[in-house]
Amino acid sequence: MNRILGIIFFMVLLYLPSFGQRKGSAPRETVIQAPSGPIKKSVSSPKSVPQTTLDPSITWSMGVGTSTNSGIFGGLSFRNAWVKNPVSQSVIGLDLSIIKDYREFDSPYSYNGRGYVEGKLNNLLVIRPEYGRQWTLFKKSNEGGASLKGLIFTGPNLGVQMPYHVDISYVNPSTGKSSIQSIAMAQALTNSNRNVIIGESSYFNGINESVIVPGWHLKTAMNVELDTFKQNYLSLEMGFIVDYFSKPIEMLNQTPYRSVYTTGYLTFFFGKSK
Q1: Which of 185, 264, 270, 271 is the most buried (most CB within 10 A)?
Q2: Percent over 90 (pLDDT), the chain
Q3: What b/e readout covers 65-99, taking b as 16+ CB neighbours within 10 angstroms?
Q4: pLDDT (mean) for 10-39
């Protein structure tokens, strides 16, 4: 009995220190410190999308050129191209061209330095509305430079056949006074006195007597697009044109009339891209 009481007393002594420690110690509090500044949410920035330079969708241009069937000034050209496809593009255009016969020559007779074309009956102005395609053969490098394009066009012709006018010295038989008149060369050729021709008149003097001759044309060309600044468009075009007219054009006196004319041309284009 004494042994059992001794074991119980020994266990009580072991338990009392731990019980006192639990009762005397205050429960621990977890302190959460508020942040001193505003809460910043970390948002992942979206990845930057690389900016790419888009090609212009439309290129319009105007050209001034010369040709083998004209003088220094061969005509004007207007063109509009859609360049959505970098390889092949649709193009529409309008040409206003002067065509002369290769057999024309200036008369050896002149009056005060004014000349005229011997035996010329009509001027020929050709209006060519056209549609075509252009293909990029060599593209520009990233550092700039020139590109090469091949072109083919076709469309109707409107040949404006205008009488060639010359100025003559006319003497009124009733008054004896002389005056200068502009008449068609076809009328001047009927006069036996050829020395009365002073020189050629204005190019458009016979426009009210014009005859429209319809036809068709085909054009092939190579276009060198030069290095441009911003959206400016500069190019040099060399090509070949075949013009067909529904009836022969009366160009020179006492020469066979022709309905087909072949022309080589050189045109400088400038314009804008947008």
Answers
A1: 185
A2: 44
A3: bbbebbeeebbebbbebebeeeeebebebebebbb
A4: 50
Q: How far apart are CA 62 and CA 232, in angstroms?
A: 12
What's the CA gap between 37 and 35, in Å, rounded? 6
192 — pLDDT class (breaks 50, 70, 90): low
The strand ranges marked E within 139-257 are 147-163, 165-171, 178-184, 197-200, 211-225, 232-249
3-class secondary-structure state, position 194: helix
Residues 6+ apart with CB under 8 A from 109: 194, 195, 197
Asked whether the beta carbons of 209 and 184 are under 8 A apart, the reply is yes
What are the pLDDT digits (tens) for 64-104?
A: 999 999 989 999 999 998 877 778 889 999 999 999 999 99
Q: Are 163 and 103 in contact (CB under 8 A)?
A: no
Q: State the pTM of this model.
A: 0.72
| Topology (CATH) of 58-102+123-163+207-273 | Porin (2.40.160)
